[in-house]
Amino acid sequence: MLALTPLSQAPAQAQAKIHKVAIHVDDRDTKRMNMALNNAQNIRKYYTSKGEKVMIEIVAYGPGLHMLRADTSPVKSRIAAMSLADPDLRFSACGNTHRKMSKKAGKSVTLIAEAKKVPSGVVRLMELQEQGWS
After folding, report:
1. pLDDT band with cut points at 50, 70 and 90 for residue 91
2. What are the extents of the domains in the chain?
3. Which numeric CATH code is attached to 16-130?
4. For residue 32, with 0-12 CB atoms within 10 Å meaning exposed, 13-18 middle and 19 or more buried, which class applies?
5. For residue 130, is pLDDT > 60?
6. Which of 101, 103, 105, 20 is nearest to 64 (CA)?
7. Which of 3, 69, 75, 121 has a C-alpha 20 to 30 A away from that of 96?
8. 96 and 119 in contact (C-beta within 8 Å)?
9. Number of other residues whose CB lies within 10 A of the CB of residue 85
10. How confident is the model at residue 4, as a pLDDT?
11. How many C-beta neighbours within 10 Å does residue 43 have?
12. Cβ atoms within 10 Å of 47's Cβ, excluding its own
C-alpha cells in the first residue's frame, strides 16, 4: 500500500524560499546612503512579517565607499546598530576603490568593522546576480 503525503503537510522549511538582494551605493551623498539603509530595513521588515528569510548585501564602491570608511562615514553608527540587529545583513567594500583612496591618502584607509573588503564592487554585484541575488 502506498501512502502519499499532501504537499500542504510537507515541512515548512523545505518550501521556504530565501530571498536575496544586493543594494549598491556608488555615491557619497548621505541621503542616498540612508536610502540604501532604509531600503534594507524595509525589505527585512516586509519578509520578516511574512515569516520568510531574507539576506541583504550592501556593496559600496567609487565615492560610495565613504559609507564604509571609519573616518568619513556619516552612517557608521546606524550601520553598527543595524548589523547587531540583523546577522544576515552584509556590507562589502570595493577593494579597487579602497586601494585608490589609500594611495591618495598616503596611508591605508580604515574601513568600519562591519565592512568586508572584496576585490571589486562591480564584480561582487555580478557574482551575486549569477548566484540568484536580485
Report:
1. very high
2. 16-130
3. 3.40.1260.10
4. middle
5. yes
6. 101
7. 75
8. yes
9. 10
10. 44
11. 18
12. 18
